[in-house]
Amino acid sequence: xxxxxxxxxxxxxxxxxxxxxxxxxxxxxxxxxxxxxxxxxxxxxxxxxxxxxxxxxxxxxxxxxxxxxxxxxxxxxxxxxxxxxxxxxxxxxxxxxxxxxxxxxxxxxxxxxxxxxxxxxxxxxxxxxxxxxxxxxxxxxxxxxxxxxxxxxxxxxxxxxxxxxxxxxxxxxxxxxxxxxxxxxxxxxxxxxxxxxxxxxxxxxxxxxxxxxxxxxxxxxxxxxxxxxxxxxxxxxxxxxxxxxxxxxxxxxxxxxxxxxxxxxxxxxxxxxxxxxxxxxxxxxxxxxxxxxxxxxxxxxxxxxxxxxxxxxxxxxxxxxxxxxxxxxxxxxxxxxxxxxxxxxxxxxxxxxxxxxxxxxxxxxxxxxxxxxxxxxxxxxxxxxxxxxxxxxxxxxxxxxxxxxxxxxxxxxxxxxxxxxxxxxxxxxxxxxxxxxxxxxxxxxxxxxxxxxxxxxxxxxxxxxxxxxxxxxxxxxxxxxxxxxxxxxxxxxxxxxxxxxxxxxxxxxxxxxxxxxxxxxxxxxxxxxxxxxxxxxxxxxxxxxxxxxxxxxxxxxxxxxxxxxxxxxxxxxxxxxxxxxxxxxxxxxxxxxxxxxxxxxxxxxxxxxxxxxxxxxxxxxxxxxxxxxxxxxxxxxxxxxxxxxxxxxxxxxxxxxxxxxxxxxxxxxxxxxxxxxxxxxxxxxxxxxxxxxxxxxxxxxxxxxxxxxxxxxxxxxxxxxxxxxxxxxxxxxxxxxxxxxxxxxxxxxxxxxxxxxxxxxxxxxxxxxxxxxxxxxxxxxxxxxxxxx
Length: 789
What we know:
Distance between the termini: 53 Å
CATH class of the domain at 21-265: Mainly Beta
CATH superfamily of the domain at 21-265: YVTN repeat-like/Quinoprotein amine dehydrogenase
Structural class: alpha+beta
């Protein structure tokens, strides 16, 4: 290797100074790295590879390493690292699988020094040893890690992680021979560079790919990891088993994690999608960032602290083609804008309220505690001072419990389980749901379902009132087809009233003969049973019907009307009564005789010992009784909004699904999506998974139907050869062994199969549960410490 020399001179002062500044890059950056004395930064990407000098007021471009008329893929960088011991040595990970080293001391324009092409796929990470000048480690998408001695032309060691992809590799800062590697399958492995045949330790760190890891610069045993599960975890590696000691929940997948210098509990993170900000967390308070940098307009791809002993300057590169230097004193402090009060409802209606004690009026009956109220300690940040230390501030938590009997949610669970939303005709769905609501003592909801059936059903398809009640019942004439007129005086012209019966329906003995029908009433009034499947019946007095009513009638008491006889099948043409084109011109009523009812060649005779009835037939209606569905849409929309505002989003969503296209276009998509999300959230909180999935399937909102289509792919490895399984079956293509063999009983698993994500061994659910109750080691004998959660 040629003798290396510096490109630029060091700063005249040992104190790092500067301000928040940025510069525009020629292309998006994939990674950045800073030199040892914090005066220069290298930016690498697919189409950029430059070195910038960090001046007092700006970035100054010093060197462009992409030379040649047509740069090769070796210049397309996925990662870059500047050696912290040798100031002119750089290493890059190329997207074509090459590992390239660069000597900035070369006199020629092309600074490329060595080229290693042993990896078969993209190299994701390169890492120099912190104290060894010539030791370089790489991790690739092919699942292998390679250790290079820069004095040789090829790698000296190859480490197989037995996984599909290595996402990050990091040498330990305190342990000379140890490095950590993170993998696509959620595992983290610790290796000794002297023993490339087997890892020293492996544990499952995340429920998904682990994108990054970083050793603590001061504490020897702390390792921070970040993954797709949106979590940053800190592990204590000094114990026999890796122990999770801190966990930070972020809002997006974690792409980079870097410990903050001189601050034991601070680390910086950035996301690989969705979130563009850089967060600095205090791991002791994981629910709100300690500081936030919000300058980037696209995903941040690389972060690095400017100097290993300076906590005040952070450098970052982004896909928005900018390079930033952030001053920590200019960072946004989210805790300053955080609401000091908290309010939350419990599943059963309990209310919890937390606030600083200074905001809550003191209770005279409560004795103050010398150290503050410690019954429910909740800690808040004070405004950060110069020492960046936060004080513990106690808060009071008040819990207001509701009466269980008055606020039980059993009706919600039973309704969700019993409602029918599809699979039957519309009228049957409405009737069934109305019956369910009636049984749960929710009469308003039951009535709503009944009204929806009446509004949107085809009148020809409505069930006849008496068909479900043995078909012979007093007063079972079709609704809006016949009216029974009850005399209140000596003549038809006397004033009558509208009556509704108040008892249960009672069927009297009846006798039916061909051509005649005799029904005894025993002076019982016509009855309507609320919630029944039949239609309601009403009695209208003659004073309420005139020429301005819905139907025109002709009646003449002077001429006797000929009698009509019943056909052989009394109910064959029951639904055609309203379609009768003509009605008898005369109807005569005689108190001594039974009344005669004309209509579609049918006669109903009612024997009334005390009072007589005048049954008047109707002629052609003045307008069509069937209204289009759009006529009722406005009032139904208001009804759904009412239920949603009252908190009964279950009713709003259920009606929305049952009505379907009849009402869907009348409600905007955002409102529908909000109702669906609220109802699905409630169902999942009550663990009604099947009902929740049915609602998702029946939804027509694209944002809802995709909820059960995510995270459905399962990648598995063969438990024998550790290679990824194909999608063709359970037989491994390489070793021709069945992957679903129980490690305890050694039989093929044909039911529920559970396996360890660390070693890929598994078996019957009950067998594995019983085994892990008494032993922590894998039953297959591989030595892995399995854990059942």
